[in-house]
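User: Teach me something about this protein's shape.
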Amino acid sequence: MKKEELSRRDFIKKVMTLSAAAALPSCLIGKNIDDSLNALKAISPNEKINLACCGIGNRGGSIINDLYNTGMVNIVALCDTEIGAAHTLGILNRFPKVPRFQDFRKMFDKMSNQIDAVCIGVPDHTHFPITMLAMSLGKHVYVEKPLARTFIECELMMQAAKKYGVVTQMGNQGHSEANYFQFKAWKEAGIIKDVTAITAHMNSARRWHGWDVNMKDFPRAETVPATLDWDCWQGARPQRSYNHDFINGQWRCWYEYGMGALGDWGAHIIDTAHEFLELGLPYEVNPVKLSGHNSFFFPMSSTICFRFPKRKNMPALDITWYDGIDNQPELPEGYGVSEYNADIPLVGNQKLQASKLNPGKIIYSKEFTFKGGSHGSTLSIIGDKEKNIKYPEVPASPSNHFENFIRACKGEEKTRSPFEVSGPLSQVFCLGVLAQRLNVPLKFDRELKIITNNKLANELLTGEPPRKGWEEFYKL
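Assistant: First, the predicted structure itself:
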């Protein structure tokens, strides 16, 4: 650990003393907390939601289109640090008269009283400040997965959501599709019970599979594009020189900004098991295999074991995560073929398709072995034991994930992936990334929420202090 990082412990100690009442200070938003909460007005079922959009290209643009296509929103503000770049033009052309911003802080300063809700489809490292400011102003928030980049950011976001009473939804859209309702019904019917192990796998090629694992430093400085506010894009992270391999999805590659394959796909594969098996946080995380481990970007392949204790009448359970094109898990007898899965969404302009195995999961219980995919893919039972099962009726989803969020803003439904559900799930991924980054087993105290066997890892639950000018988002 660098000398300057060692001097940052005052920040770490301060943030780790957060209490259940933690939230943003009034000095951040220029008004007192009561005024902020008063901004959370009741919305008539007949009214449209006034939606501000942070992140309008790539995945952010898709989120905007899906929310707008519900027919229940007005797009009132567009914000992107690269506004005007090629990948933002689709949304800019669809909503040519909507006010545009490069800095979300300026957007809220100018338009806060015109905004009911905010969708946030930006790099992982900037989910936190935008979401916290929005919630403190009484705005409902739809945040792309994973919830945040660090364990403590997830914790603060959960606490702020409770304090400000806003509607929250994380964008793991499978939580509003067939897999969610099937898993819930099968669990309640006793078909899914006594689960002792889950294999989760995502073995498609990732951006970093062609990179040099012997990299000694971040990539060289390049000229910042005229359309990019590089300072704002970096958010609370340390100041660095611009390089094209940091932006437009490449941020997923770096520990500095993203969460790798685990953070990108874990919420689409593990989400229903995590919720309905009431897993919470693991007590141990072991990096079983990390091929091409280095200090800057994610390993070429990873096998990570998450260990969860007994819960109520449910046995202890291990989830073993596999990523990397050369790191596919052993399949149970009778698994069958990994046929093309139409539930896997577009990535860029192409379907993501593994050469041998689709992203998905294998769930092992004392009686059955279940085969499942990602997102909304439903489960099937491997073998011939399923012939004698009396299956319960599985209800159809009353709304997709985007409509569910908007209807919740209008008081008509409850969100299916609120921060109280998606926050602990995201924290599981944060712990997994720490094990990847440090290449050490971690022992975690679920009650105290601390890592007990590695001092550096425990400090990284909070991470480095924010860059100057971004401290207020983290103050208690």
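Now, about its shape. The two ends are 27 Å apart (CA to CA). The first helix runs from residue 3 to 6. If you'd like, I can walk through any region in more detail.
User: That's plenty for now, thanks!
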